[in-house]
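Priority: medium. Attachment 1 of 2:
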């Protein structure tokens, strides 16, 4: 009975996330369609921007891949065994994936690793999918003033290591809890974080939970963001 109930709950999560994903993908598909329309017009001033097509399509595909991966995990079709994983290497790989998209939105994307973070107990594929989805949700969000800056960040926090995405936009402490409550009920449940549907945040949230962690709002002097705390691996602990 409990197994059936869990499956029912997971399918409910799956449907809400699918709706959010559909809304999230609408904009990049419209951008690609617009560029195709310009190409068909064949005018000098209406040449398609290949960079826009390439970056938006790549980002959309990665978000879909992350969504499919997270639903497989939620439905028990894919496991996320925890193993020593380099959070630094994962963040640099993620920043490379998102560089083209960030450039189109005139957004800076950087990596900041504070202190000796070493290896964390996570799933390499799950961690990369979570960070990619999370950063995607932030890219292009409206700024009240100045240029948007997104920083994939890792730092020591007590006995653990925090990893996630920080930005120069303001995020309130209650933003994430409110977004979780509105998940599947509002068009933009995380409107204070992103102008998109927030699918990337929900994908990341689900993946971090599957890796025995959880997203939290983190606030610093001039930045705020969403981060999860993971345990350092035993190998790392031996040398610290």
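Attachment 2 of 2:
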């Amino acid at each position: 009975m409990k197994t059936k109930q869990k499956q029912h709950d997971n399918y409910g999560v799956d449907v809400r996330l699918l709706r959010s994903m559909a809304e999230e993908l609408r904009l990049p598909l419209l951008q690609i369609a617009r560029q195709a329309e310009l190409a068909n017009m064949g005018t000098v001033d209406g040449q398609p921007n290949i960079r826009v097509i390439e970056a938006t399509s790549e980002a959309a595909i990665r978000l879909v891949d992350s969504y499919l991966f997270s639903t497989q995990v939620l439905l028990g079709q894919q496991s996320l065994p925890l193993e020593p994983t380099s959070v630094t290497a994962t963040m640099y790989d993620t920043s490379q994936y998102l560089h083209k998209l960030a450039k189109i939105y005139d957004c800076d994307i950087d990596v900041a690793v504070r202190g000796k973070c070493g290896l964390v107990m996570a799933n390499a594929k799950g961690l990369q999918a979570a960070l990619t989805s999370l950063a995607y949700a932030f890219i292009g969000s409206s700024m009240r003033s100045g240029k948007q800056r997104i920083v994939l960040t890792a730092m020591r926090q007590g006995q653990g290591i925090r990893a996630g995405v920080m930005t120069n936009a303001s995020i309130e402490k209650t933003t994430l809890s409110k977004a979780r409550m509105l998940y599947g009920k509002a068009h933009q449940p995380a409107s204070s974080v992103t102008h998109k549907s927030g699918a990337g945040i929900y994908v990341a949230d689900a993946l971090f939970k599957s890796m025995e962690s959880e997203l939290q709002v983190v606030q610093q002097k001039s930045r705020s963001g969403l981060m999860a705390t993971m345990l350092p691996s035993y190998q790392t602990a031996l040398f610290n």
